[in-house]
Amino acid sequence: MDPNHDLKRLLTGGLALHKVGPHLRQAARRAVRSGDRRRMRDVADVIIAELARRGTPRPAAGQQPRTVADARHGVPDVDHILAAMTSAQDLKVGNAVSGAAGILLESVASLLQDLVPRCGLFILLFDDTELGPARHWVCSLAPTAEYPAWLGRRAPGQAVFMPTIAELPRAIADKLPGGPDFTKAVAVPLVDPAAPDAGIGDAREAGLVFVLADAAVDRDDLLQLGAKLSRFVTHRWQVHRDLDRKIHVDALTGLFNRGFLDNHCPVLLERARRSETPLTLIMADIDLFKSINTEFGLLVGDRALQMIARRLQEELRRVDVVCRRGGEEFALMLPETGPQAAREVITRLLHAPFVLPAGPDTGNRKIQLTMSYGVSIFPDDGSNYEQLHNHAQSLMFLSRDRGRNQCQYWRNDGNHRRQLP
Q1: Which of 105, 140, 247, 256 could link 128 by a cystine bridge, Cβ 3.0 to 4.6 Å?
Q2: Is the per-residue pLDDT at 66 higher than 50?
Q3: What is the rounded distance in angstroms from the CA atom of residue 283 to the CA atom of residue 396?
Q4: Do β-strands 321-326 and 279-286 pair in parallel, antiparallel, or remain unpaired?
C-alpha cells in the first residue's frame, strides 16, 4: 500500500477544503502532486488548524471521514492533528459564557469523533451535577446505576483496558451507535484542569475518557490513543475555563460578576432541587456609597469596594459564592442554607467591621460602612432564579428605604421579617 495514501485522501477530499481559502486549496493540490510526505503533512496541519479556527474540522458533505493512520495497527496517528487543533486557541467548542462542564465536554467529544472515525469516544463524569441537560457523548455515573466491578476497584489515576465491551458501564453501553463493530475499549482518567499540578495519573479526576475500537487495534496502542485524547480534552477544558474566568470575574474586586450570577445561580438551584436542600440568595447594597465617592474621591470608593468584597468572602464559607452585581450591589449564593443558617450569616454580616482608612490626606480618618440586605430562600420563597432574585432585590430596597443597615426576609404573605444589628 502507498504509505502516503491516507495523506493524499485527506488532502483530496477527506478535509472540508471548500471551507478554507483558495491559497490553502492550491497548496493541498501542489503537495499531493509532489508526493512529499513531510510537505503533505505540513499542509494538512495548516488546513486542520484553519478548520479548527473556524470551528468546522469536518469532512466535506457526503464524503467518508478520513484520518492519517498507522497501517500496522489501524490506530489513528493523531499527534499532528491534535497539535494543530491545540495550537488553534480560538477553536470553537462549548458555550463561552457557560461554566457547565457538560456543555464544553460534549462539544469537544463531538469534535473528536471525526478525528478517530474508526473508534468510539465517550466521557463519563463522576459528578452528575456538572453534566447539565442530556448529552450524547458525555454521561454521568448515577448513584443508583449499575456499574462494572472494575470501576469500583480501579485506583485513582489508573487507566483500564477492557478486552470486551461487555465491561462498559451501562451509561455508555446504552449510547453505542450502530455501525462500527467495537470489540474492546480503554478507560483513561480525565483530569480536572482546576486541580493543582493536574496531569494523567493525578488523583484529582473529573471522570474517565472511554475509547472503543475493533479487533485490529492492540491494547498498548489503544491505551496510548486514549491518553492523548484525554490530555487534549483537559487542555481544551482549561482554555475554556480561563476564558470563562476572564468573562465572569470583576476586574476591580476579583469577585464573580453579574454574568456569572445569571448563569451559575440556576445551576446551583438545580443542584438544590436534585438534592432537596435549601439555597439562600442574599442581595446586599452599600449604604450611602455615592457620598464616599463625592467626599473622598473615586479611588477611595474603589478601595471601599475592594474592602467590602474581601470582608464578605471572609465571613462566608468556601462553597458560598460572592458576586458583584454592579456598582455597590452584591449577591451572595449560599448552598444548603436554610432560614436559621441564613439568619446566623446575616447576624455576622450586620456586625462585621466594614472599616476603611480614608488616607493621610484626611488625617487618617476611618470610614465606617454599613450594608442593607434582602434574603429569599429556595424553595419556600421561589422556585426559580428570577423569583428568588426579584424577591431578594425588592427586600434589599425595602431595607434601604426603612433606615439602612438592616435585613429583610421574604414572606409570601407580605409580612416580611426585619433584622437589625
Answers
A1: 140
A2: no
A3: 6
A4: unpaired
pLDDT band at 144 (very low <50, low <70, confident <90, very high): low
Q: Which residue has the higher pLDDT, 140 or 257?
A: 257
The grid coordinates of residue 83 equal 497539535
Contact 359, 367 (CB under 8 A): no
Buried residues in 365-379 as b, exposed as e (16+ CB within 10 A): eebebebbbbbbbbe
Rounded Cα–Cα distance for residues 373 and 392 (Å):
8
20-34, 86-100, 222-236, 368-382: the lowest-pLDDT one: 86-100
pLDDT at 67: 38
**Cell triple for 176:** 453505542
DSSP secondary structure of 294-358: HHH-HHHHHHHHHHHHHHHHHHS-TTSEEEEEETTEEEEEEET--HHHHHHHHHHHHHS--EEE-
Q: Which residue is it, cell 450570577?
A: 261
CA distance 363 to 358: 8
The C-alpha atoms of residue 89 and residue 381 are separated, in whole angstroms, by 44
Q: Report the SS3 class of residue 188.
A: strand
Nearest in space to 146 (alpha carbons), one of 173, 165, 162, 169? 169
Q: What is the pLDDT of residues 72-98, one digit of tens each?
A: 444 555 665 566 555 554 455 555 445
User: Using CA of residue 126, residue 192, residue 119, residue 19, what is the dihedral sign?
Assistant: positive
d(CA 131, CA 111): 18
Residue with cell 475555563: 241
228 is written with which cell numbers? 492523548
In Å, how far are 158, 169, 196 from 187, measured between CA atoms? Answer: 9, 10, 22
- State the average pLDDT over residues 343-372: 88
- Backbone phi and psi for residue 224, each to the nearest 5 degrees, phi listed first: -65, -40
Least Cα distance to 354 among 328, 335, 325, 375 occurs for: 328
Contact assessment for residue 28 and residue 45, using Cβ atoms and an 8 Å cutoff: no
Q: Which of 186, 121, 171, 126 is nearest to 152 (CA)?
A: 126
User: What Rg, from alpha-carbon coordinates, does the chain have?
Assistant: 27
In this prediction, residues 25-47 reach a mean pLDDT of: 83
pLDDT of 188 reads 95
Q: Give the other-Cβ count within 10 Å of 134's Cβ.
A: 9
Q: How long a stretch of residues is the chain?
A: 421
Closest CA to 162 of 109, 120, 106, 118: 120
CA dihedral for 113, 115, 121, 127, sign (positive or negative): negative
